[in-house]
Amino acid sequence: MVRNNIYGNTVSRAHPYWDYFEENDDYCIGLDSKKNINYESLKAKQASLRFFDFFSTLNQFFGILMVILIGYFYGNIDGSYEWKDINSNISDNTYYRSYLNLHGLAVIVGLVFLQGEGILINRHFRHEPKSIFKLYQIVFNLIALACGAFALAASIIYSNKVESNHFYSFQSWLLLGVLAIYLAVSSTYLFVFTFPRLQKNIRQALKPYINVMCLVTFILSSLYSILSNALYINKYVNNNEIKICTNNKDDCIDQFRYIMNFGLVATVLYSIVVVIQASKPSWSRKLKDI
């Protein structure tokens, strides 16, 4: 069966990549075509898409593994995810450690996983209507920003309860910077590409810069997550004087240390895969469709 794909090229639906067409290619893609086929170019495109599918599999595997491991870690150490009474006056600092657990969960789910998936939406939905991936991007960005704001609030509440100074560390300022940049980039993207949506030539001119800023924000978010989790291990897990286990098993600390370490490795690998997928121009949506 021969028909036109979304780019107006006459191709065969039997071809596995019948709807794939690069910006700088003058040939139609398909087993049957009214034009001559550059088979070398076709072979390269097929291999490129297979690599993209492979990286997408890695992306989902490392992302889900990262969320499960770090979520399990914070959900099973002292305090778990219980939201303590903000108005309580208990002097025991360990009572409020659940705020740190909620902070860690919100960062890894929102600022790392959901932000990474939001960046790759237009690459996973390369040929669907624009409204689909733009809606997903808006939803993912809103949830990620909400998680970031929640993480910041939980951190501030914990600092207030343990009478610790705010924003005296590089880690705290990094989180503030990430949220500020993320909010600015998301607002700019919404204004330029969605509503009120600027003219096409302006959108195409701004798109590379916005893409770079999205990647920078994601990389900074990943660095913050890795840094904060590593500091948590050093401050609490490796400190024998602080009890973080809800049971008295001798191997409790070692188990949690392994879980978080593998979670950190998964975070690094997930971030690398996202950057690779977001950096290859041929895997992006065509410029005329933005």
Automatic annotation (TrEMBL):
For the keyword Plastid, the answer is no
What is its subcellular localisation?
Answer: Membrane
Q: Please state every residue range assigned to the domain named Cytochrome b561.
A: 58-279
The GO molecular function terms of this record are:
metal ion binding; oxidoreductase activity
Cofactor entry: heme b
User: Which Gene Ontology cellular-component terms appear in the entry?
Assistant: membrane
Q: Which Pfam families match?
A: Cytochrom_B561
Has UniProt tagged this entry with the keyword Lipid biosynthesis? no
Q: Which InterPro entries match?
A: CYB561/CYBRD1-like, Cyt_b561/ferric_Rdtase_TM
Q: Which CDD domains match?
A: Cyt_b561
Database matches in SMART domains: B561
Q: Which domain of life is it from?
A: Eukaryota
State where it is primarily located: membrane
What Gene3D superfamilies does the database record attribute to this sequence? 1.20.120.1770
- UniProt keyword terms in alphabetical order: Electron transport, Heme, Iron, Membrane, Metal-binding, Transmembrane, Transmembrane helix, Transport
Q: How does it sit in the membrane?
A: Multi-pass membrane protein
Ranges annotated as spanning the membrane: 51-74, 94-114, 135-158, 170-196, 208-227, 258-278
Q: What is this protein called?
A: Cytochrome b561 domain-containing protein
